[in-house]
């Protein structure tokens, strides 16, 4: 009887360890975050851009657009985004980035809250795109 309890206890501990090990894994790239948008790496953003066949709308939320931006990006500074949202096409996918994570997260969340889907945020913003060696304008 004591042996049976020890074996059951070992199996219980192993089962808990296996379940908890899955909890410790990092979230997969491109996963949705609390704001309802998906964070993507520069490589994933580039793949989205190519796969969307021109449908992806890229929004630079920074005030330094003229200093460099992703190809085909439009400039809508974060402070003007609320006013521009009614003019944007909700049927298209969006990729947003800025100079800071706070700005790009705020912009992505505003789009999601206005009913846009899917919305992607470039992790690391413009700097990550340039660091990956991708072209900029």
Helices and strands in order:
Elements: H1 2-23, E1 38-40, H2 42-51, E2 57-60, E3 74-75, H3 78-84, E4 94-97, H4 101-113, E5 119-122, H5 125-131
Parallel strand pairs: 1-5, 2-3, 2-4, 4-5
Describe the structure.
It is a single chain. With 137 residues, the chain is of the alpha/beta class. Helices cover 43% and strands 12% of the residues. The chain has helices at 2-23, 42-51, 78-84, 101-113, 125-131; strands at residues 38-40, 57-60, 74-75, 94-97, 119-122. The chain has a 5-stranded parallel sheet. It is globular, with a radius of gyration of 21 Å. The relative contact order is 0.19.
Oligomer: single chain
Net shape: globular
Query: What's the end-to-end separation, in Å?
Result: 74 Å
Counting helices, strands and paired strands, the structural category is alpha/beta
Q: Give the strand order of the largest sheet, numbering strands 1, 2, ... along the chain.
A: 1-5-4-2-3
Q: Indicate the mean pLDDT.
A: 83
Helix count from the secondary structure assignment: 5
Let me know the number of strands. Answer: 5
User: Which architecture does the CATH hierarchy give at level 2?
Assistant: 3-Layer(aba) Sandwich
Given as residue ranges, the uncertain stretches (5+ residues, pLDDT < 50) are 2-7, 9-29
CATH topology value? Oxidized Rhodanese, domain 1
Helix percent reads 40-55%
The biggest beta sheet is recorded as:
5 strands, parallel
Q: How do the SSEs run, as a string of H and E?
A: HEHEEHEHEH
- The domain tally reads 1
Strand residue content: 5-15%
State the CATH class: Alpha Beta
The CATH homologous superfamily is called Rhodanese-like domain
Question: Radius of gyration from the CA trace?
Answer: 21 Å
């Amino acid at each position: 009887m004591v042996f049976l309890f020890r074996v059951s206890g070992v199996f219980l501990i192993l089962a808990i360890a296996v379940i908890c090990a899955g909890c410790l894994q990092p979230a997969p790239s491109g996963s949705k975050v609390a704001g309802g948008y998906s964070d993507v790496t520069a490589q994933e953003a580039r793949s989205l851009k190519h796969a969307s066949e021109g449908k992806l709308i890229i929004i630079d939320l920074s005030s330094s657009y003229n200093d460099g931006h992703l190809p085909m990006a439009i400039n809508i500074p974060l402070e003007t985004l609320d006013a521009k949202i009614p003019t944007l096409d909700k049927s298209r996918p969006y990729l947003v980035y800025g100079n800071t994570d706070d700005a790009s997260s705020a912009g992505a969340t505003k789009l999601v809250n206005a009913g846009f889907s899917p919305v992607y945020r470039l992790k690391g913003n413009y700097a990550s795109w340039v660091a990956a060696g991708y072209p900029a304008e």
